[in-house]
Amino acid sequence: MHTRKFGWAEKLGLAGAAITAAGALTLGVTAAQAAPSSAGMSATVVHVVTRAPIGKMLANDKGLSLYTAPGACTGSCLGIWPPLVMPKGATLPLGAKCLSTAAFGKSGRQVTYHGKRLYMFYMDSGSSVKGQNVGGFKAASVTSSCP
Description:
Strand order of the largest sheet: 7-8-9-5-10
Radius of gyration: 14 Å
Number of domains: 1
Strand content: 25-35%
Order of helices and strands: HEEEEEHEEEEE
Structural class: alpha+beta
Number of helices: 2
Largest sheet: 5 strands, antiparallel
């Protein structure tokens, strides 16, 4: 299996690794990040927000911007781009049209939008969209129809 390498990840070096670890801890990269507004097997995990310069896009329950990847994000990439995962026991993501899930880890489910996995950027806070175009990641812009 070929995994795309992100040149910017290598440029971060050891200082970046420390920042990445701290960012992952700050973000609380666990299943709880997905907003347990769950009722049975469903959970509201995203909200549609309006952010400059993107327009309508997806954010998680804490308001952090969500992004899609240009390829596979595994290993150290996940420290910079934490995945949006479903709360334990929930399988149906709610909050916008075109949401689904894909297998993640041994027993988790990662939220997808139009079939693309959703991630947060470790440097985002509040309503920032600092991850736009970093390493090819794009803000999850809301579209009117599902494929």
